Amino acid sequence: MKKLGIVDMGFLLAEGRETPMHVGGINLFTLPPGADEQEFLHGLAASLRSDEELQPPFGQRLKMSKLGLAGPVYWEEDTKLDLDYHIRHSALPKPGRYRELFALASRLHGTLLDRNRPLWEMHLIEGLQNRQFAIYSKFHHAAVDGARSMHLTQSMFSPDPNARNLGSAFSLESQNRYRLKLDQLRAENYSEQELRNVSEAIKEAFQTSTQVFSSLKSFVGGWMGKGGALALPWRHVPQSSINTPIDGSRRFVAQSWSFERVRAVGKALDGTFNDAVLAMCAGGLRLYMQKHSELPEKSLKAMVPVSLRQAGDIDSSNAVGAISADLATDISDPLARFAKIQASMIAGKALFSALKPKEAALMLQLLQMPGLLLMPLGLISRFPPFSTVISNVPGPRQTMYWDGARLDGIYPASIVTEGLALNITLVSYDGNVDFGITACRRSMPQVQRLIDYMESSLCELEQAVGIVSPKQRPSRARSVKKTKATKKKRRVSAKT
Amino acid sequence: MKKLGIVDMGFLLAEGRETPMHVGGINLFTLPPGADEQEFLHGLAASLRSDEELQPPFGQRLKMSKLGLAGPVYWEEDTKLDLDYHIRHSALPKPGRYRELFALASRLHGTLLDRNRPLWEMHLIEGLQNRQFAIYSKFHHAAVDGARSMHLTQSMFSPDPNARNLGSAFSLESQNRYRLKLDQLRAENYSEQELRNVSEAIKEAFQTSTQVFSSLKSFVGGWMGKGGALALPWRHVPQSSINTPIDGSRRFVAQSWSFERVRAVGKALDGTFNDAVLAMCAGGLRLYMQKHSELPEKSLKAMVPVSLRQAGDIDSSNAVGAISADLATDISDPLARFAKIQASMIAGKALFSALKPKEAALMLQLLQMPGLLLMPLGLISRFPPFSTVISNVPGPRQTMYWDGARLDGIYPASIVTEGLALNITLVSYDGNVDFGITACRRSMPQVQRLIDYMESSLCELEQAVGIVSPKQRPSRARSVKKTKATKKKRRVSAKT
Question: Which residue ranges are recorded for the region named Disordered (chains A, B) (predicted)?
């Protein structure tokens, strides 16, 4: 039996009925030519439910002592595994637009996973227009983090549209097959920093002999204290509707943009793709706050998670650090805003590279853990460490297929917590960047508008750097659209 | 602001992620001739979402002091009421059989209601075969009990297939209209016992000056003590798979039987309709236990709730007492089993009639409350006060319509708790008796078989009393079937 690490424990400790701690999202597909929807989906469900041996932790459930979460927690085999429970089949009401899909995903994302069972669900969803279908998946963050879930996506699908009978992505065999392929390709793009696994580092830092829960408590006490090494710079971010107590229901919306279009803005300003993503979100948030008459004087800060997973490590579940990015929402000029965002990202990265690996890992904890731990203490909305989370998860670079069904988009759904009512996660896949936006339904009921404001923000940046955006060149756009139409119209785009 | 009574508080205190405390169920309809499903359902949703003033507590949410549930709790207006959240639209995957409907209802019934909002949801469900559609509704027991929900059903529908634009059943206006109609008709069939509202009686018994929570605790202490007036006879019911700890997921199945067919068995044995229902369930449970090799030597006991709601009282939410019925599952002869069940019901009713009203109300608490209160203490699976719950809720006698859509069946879904993993609730409606069976998915994964065993049990009783059951008379059955076919085939029946 494997013992849960301290970070995974944190996700269990922090979970409540208002703050489910699962990640997941929507994958969108087009049926193979000629395939019958019902027959095809039943085939997929059957292969996912096959009784192969599952890779950990998909066949395992939590085992606690009488101390509950105050004591050690292990993964144990679930001897009564009920795959019909985990693999589900749903349908959308007519007319089956993305709107109906997002309404369903919002609902599914707002309910807790059952802690008596393996901590995941996968829903096959039928009833979309244009021969599309979707899956919504849901993994507890204590079991699977964003990067692991992306490895799962990679292993589940094939770049070959004619590949069939790929088996269940949750099987041990599928994991082994994928590990082999990964060794051969070494094409992974994760950070090569020689950082240790976060949970290992923090375990050492707090000494494993000490009781985990009380260690964490004293750690939070230290963080809350004023001055010293623990008084971190982003301590005083402004209050907004994002930084409020939340309830348990969610709004999920999604949108794709062309990767090239976003990267071109970054390039034109000597910045990275990620800088451009942050600038696009920052401009969108500024507009949203303006329209709701609540733009704070001080700039919003975003937590930008950084993967610490070592290349080739596909099964340790949580290996994530964070940089605090200044979103410069107090600046109206888009170029000056971009420059300030870029500077804060460079400073954040420099901070990590100047530290020894072990120090860096610990530093990341100082940036990441308090949010999790302040939650159960109910303090985070008064001392918000960040305004929001903007997280970039690398996805497959080429078009992928699932038993011949083309994967059209990957839209991640993440966690929102007390004081962090908005999460923006994006996946770059097959020439697009797919955004999934998860929000508290009560704190940000109109979060779907953020999508439009992000498009406005991108246009504004393009205009400022002299790029003619697709919308401004109708004559060329027409021919471009024609060739891309068959592909584009099946993505979630601004027109839907 | 209305303060919650002690019984309603009990449902909040007892609720946990493994034991949601909501009731509800499936209502099945046939679209009006010529109506377009999508258009019709959108019309219904729109009228349910109209911004009329809502009757309490559908527009109200819980308001607690800093003491939480240990202090007084009130209903307050939800100023941010979001009816899109409460009125939902779902669809079934193809082929849209009752099987898919029950799978969806099982899932919806296994998730907690959001305590930050009014404690109810209603789901319009499309995608059924034969021009049927369904609603699944979900009400927290602290807000709405079974009888109140039946009043809601009555007020929602009309006996006139041509009646249209009935408005939202949740509106204050609809409640007032219904109250008037009730005054005129006085056709209600509730118990006329001059009993006081249960929560009033128990409040007096424990003195309002004492803190509610500690009173309940000492009450449980008394019940757990041995001997004296509190050592009640059903204390030692046998262990079975029904009396186990449960988890949070559910299985829901439903079935209709002809009211006449069940009543004929009761009549032939000088018993009531309810005696026949209990005998049918008892025989079914005996077969289920036998097939799973776990039939206990001692007989199973059923809690049979009795409504204490006074005629004309349609808004006090919980007014329920209980009789403990001996199911005689240790007896193989169906007639001897029936006789023992009947005797225990007569004894239970005699017990109530011999008590003064106030004593009866208190006695009912002794029968009902411990189950609720033992739950949070984790003791009920060791001291199960009953084996299961079999509850009969009176429904409308005539065929009802919702904006012209015929109501085909009313299948209630109820609560299962620690140690009571099975609940059987039935509604008599329009010549049928509609059973809804709710079970813990882990404890009773094959509960759908109980439906068949109940049919076997009914046939066995019919045979024993010399009634020729419909299955045994093919020659006459044919002609009977012909006339009833159009109606019957749309009910959930043994053939689906």
Answer: 470-496
